[in-house]
Design a protein that fits this description.
Blueprint (H helix, E strand, L loop, with lengths): L1 H31 L8 H20 L6 E7 L6 E6 L15 E2 L6 H5 L7 E5 L2 E16 L2 E10 L8 H9 L16 H7 L6 E6 L5 H15 L9 E4 L3 H6 L3 H4 L6 E3 L1 H9 L6 H11 L13 H5 L2 H16 L7 E4 L2 E3 L1 H11 L5 H20 L5 H20 L6 H8 L19 H12 L8 H12 L9 E4 L7 H8 L7 E5 L15 H4 L7 E6 L1 E2 L4 H14 L7 E2 L7 E5 L5 H4 L3 H15 L5 E6 L2 H11 L6 E3 L10 E6 L8 E6 L11 H11 L2 E9 L14 E3 L8
Parallel strand pairs: 2-3, 7-13, 7-14, 8-9, 8-12, 12-13, 15-16, 17-22, 17-23, 18-20, 18-21, 19-20, 21-22
Antiparallel strand pairs: 1-2, 1-5, 4-5, 5-6, 10-11
């Protein structure tokens, strides 16, 4: 066995050295070629190609590839060793195979989909289905041109069993830094199916915590750009993430895959930009404070909760009815007369409005009708009998034209939104009362806030829809593809509006209902989103394997879901064992420690000292509220140098040691997590509380400690084999 390994290692080391020589030779030739700066278009295109190749090779020379697949097609005489990397590179000399095959190429799909066996396998290529046999599937780790690891996950010529999880477990065991990394070398079969799914589909992905759904979505963008390069462009793609810090956290993945220029935003930022409005910065913090800052007292959520109602398609139909009312009575009563003796009949204006310009949305229709009236005025002015009459008619005509335009409805989204909720004077032909579909409590609260000039995040989808109905897509390009992360926190209304701004229903919508801690505005079931699309335009995938945490952490978190939520969306762990989850009571603090700040602070300080003293790059203390996080941070900052408070206002995740409320941790991951105040005084018995604790627990990759006052919630009362109580025994005792 050892001899086989040494032979494989030597073989791969020789191949790597030859590949590096070829890469360096090609790179040197390209760098010595003078850069073309002229105006000849053909030469410019060639220079762009050379420059891209220079960049690709410079990047490739550090880690040329990560996998090898030996494959023999049915129509081929011999098997070929195919090396797969992040960037595809052809050889300088004509060859039957590239130096490195791009991971997105059709044949590379075998590297991810083939899991062993002696049967014939196949992959889809542009020329059709290619069948053949896989002889070898090998993972390699190359860092800075040095071969570090070789692992065969399948070898047809060997009696040794396949070790498909061995390489995966090795990569998962690596410590975390302050950025999300690509998973291109460890993409699993179920992930690969999602990445390579057809473009014009609203793909909904339910992924358990740690299933890699965010990374899968980012890899899917890279695949779509490769597979549909003539149909899509990076500039017309966008990623919607929960907050700006999360955007920073994922910012390195696409560049690592050789993809740039994809817009990344939060929905509120994008919507506010389209609408030309400013959303108060305090809006998000006020909403969070209302729902999260009072332990054990979260308001009851119903379909009449403002965020839920304003995110429903019910409000869409109310808006549609209101816009139709405006359209039918848009043309002012009476004929138009710019001066005495000149009359433009209302019947003619109605004909323009209702027939000639009917295909245009209301605001554009009004513009064209008013432009037509203006041209009519100019034609009438030419009939003036004298210069004095012309001057007088021009003055009167301009004033009456302006006054006539003012009689039309104000096609402004905010003005119409206020009218719908009866927070402003409505047109005469509108019903006196507000639409009966609007719940009284929602109506009352919205009227109060709109009259104060307050806009909430939940008001943006309705405003966007009004804007679209009035103006169409003008001023906003339609996207080729949209990725929505943490989609369980999006409303159906948000998705329906975004569908107006994307071609062919091309979405990747990903989230986890078990992490639906923003249920006051998000969906409770995926069918709320699926119902927005015809069956042929949507697909659903479930990712159940968790690659983030150890088996002990996942089993513990699953127990919280089962007992506290009754959820069946449980994670299946990859076989990676670690230390048990540790439950530590504040009462166990040492007297001398407790004297300096109390038992709670002492316990948090001791836990942080213990975990940060290990080989962990990222350690987080998660609190129930922002207030508690700020207080703890103030106490800890004097003792720990590399410690940061994450309060929702920062846009950069710095790694190291972090203190943050649990609700801001969603989407992030840390080597070790200390969940402070994991007791019933901070986490009640409701399903929402259990989901909140589940989110906190599933942030940990390797180590999870829960600190408490002794009164544990019912969903963590049961101690299984995956948990231990008390502090760890110091080494040497």
């Amino acid at each position: 066995m050892e001899d086989n390994f040494q032979s494989a290692y030597q073989e791969e080391e020789d191949r790597l050295n030859h590949a590096l020589i070829e890469i360096d030779s090609t790179l040197e030739r390209l760098r010595s070629t003078p850069v073309y700066t002229g105006h000849d278009y053909t030469e410019q295109v060639l220079e762009d190609s050379r420059e891209q190749r220079r960049k690709d090779l410079a990047k490739l020379r550090q880690e040329p590839y990560f996998g090898r697949l030996d494959f023999q097609g049915n129509d081929e005489e011999e098997r070929k060793a195919l090396y797969i990397g992040k960037i595809g590179v052809d050889r300088e000399q004509v060859s039957d195979r590239p130096l490195v095959i791009d991971w997105r190429a059709p044949v590379a799909s075998l590297f991810y989909s083939f899991t062993g066996g002696t049967e014939m396998t196949s992959y889809e290529a542009p020329e059709g289905l290619i069948e053949g046999l896989v002889y070898l599937k090998r993972n390699v780790v190359i860092r800075k041109q040095i071969l570090e690891r070789v692992a065969d996950t399948y070898n047809r010529d060997s009696d040794a069993p396949a070790v498909s999880d061995e390489f995966l477990v090795y990569r998962l065991g690596e410590n975390k830094d302050n950025r999300l990394r690509d998973i291109v070398s460890t993409i699993q079969e179920e992930q690969d199916k999602i990445i390579r799914a057809a473009k014009n589909t609203a793909l909904i992905i339910q992924g358990v915590a740690g299933s890699g759904k965010t990374t899968v979505a980012l890899h899917r963008l890279a695949f779509l750009l490769y597979q549909y390069k003539d149909q899509v462009s990076a500039e017309k793609m966008i990623i919607f993430a929960p907050n700006r810090m999360f955007l920073d956290y994922i910012s390195d993945v696409l560049p690592e895959l050789g993809v740039g220029n994809i817009a990344q935003s939060t929905f509120p930022d994008w919507a506010a930009d389209v609408l030309g409005v400013t959303l108060p910065e305090q809006d998000a913090s006020e909403a969070v404070s209302r729902w999260f800052e009072t332990a054990g007292a979260m308001p009851v959520i119903t379909e009449e909760t403002p965020g839920r109602f304003k995110g429903s398609t019910v409000l869409m139909s109310v808006i549609e009815s209101s816009i139709k009312l405006l359209e039918t009575s848009a043309v002012p009563e009476g004929d138009f007369s710019p001066w005495d003796g000149a009359v433009l009949r209302r019947s003619m204006i109605l004909r323009w409005h209702n027939e000639e310009y009917a295909p245009y949305p209301p605001a554009k229709r009004k513009e064209r009708v008013m432009a037509r009236i203006h041209r009519w005025i100019e034609m009438e002015l030419k009939k003036s009998p004298s210069a004095a009459a012309l001057k007088d008619r021009k003055k009167k005509g301009a004033a009456r034209e302006k006054a006539y335009s003012a009689k039309w409805p104000k096609y402004e989204p905010l003005a119409i939104y206020k009218q719908i909720f009866r927070a402003a004077k409505t047109p005469e032909d509108w019903p006196a009362g507000a639409p009966e579909e609007i719940p009284p409590a929602v109506l009352k609260e919205t009227v109060k806030e709109l009259k104060k000039g307050i806009l909430r995040e939940e008001d943006l989808p309705p405003l966007l829809y009004i804007h679209y109905l009035l103006n169409g897509n003008e001023g906003t390009e339609r996207f080729d593809h949209i990725v929505i992360d943490e989609a369980q926190d999006f409303s159906p209304f948000q998705i329906a509006v975004l569908d107006l701004y994307v071609k062919g229903h091309s979405f990747t919508i990903l989230g986890d209902l078990s992490q639906g801690i923003h249920a006051y505005k998000g969906v409770h079931e995926w069918k709320e989103m699926q119902s927005l699309f015809a069956g042929e335009y949507t697909a659903y995938h479930a990712l159940t394997r968790s690659y983030r945490s150890t088996m002990e952490i996942i089993e513990f978190a699953n127990g919280i879901l089962s007992a506290g939520v009754g959820s069946g969306l449980l994670a299946v762990p990859v076989f990676r064992s670690g230390n048990p989850v540790r439950l530590i009571s504040y009462e166990d603090a040492q007297p001398e420690q407790a004297a300096s700040g109390g038992k709670r602070l002492s316990a948090v300080r001791s836990a942080l000292s213990s975990l940060s003293g290990r080989e962990y790059r990222t350690v987080a203390v998660l609190t129930r509220s922002l207030r508690e996080a700020a207080e703890l941070y103030a106490e800890l900052a004097g003792q720990f140098e590399d410690i940061h408070l994450i309060d929702g206002s920062i846009t950069e995740y710095r790694g190291g040691l972090s203190v943050l409320p649990v609700y801001l941790s969603k989407g992030l991951e840390f080597d070790a997590v200390i969940l402070a105040d994991a007791d019933s005084a901070h986490y009640g018995g409701a399903a929402w509380d259990a989901k909140l604790m589940y989110v906190g627990c599933t942030r940990a990759l390797h180590e999870l400690w829960l600190l408490h006052d002794g009164g544990l919630p019912h969903y963590v009362q049961q101690l299984g084999e995956e948990t231990v109580s008390g502090w760890p025994v110091p080494e040497g005792n």
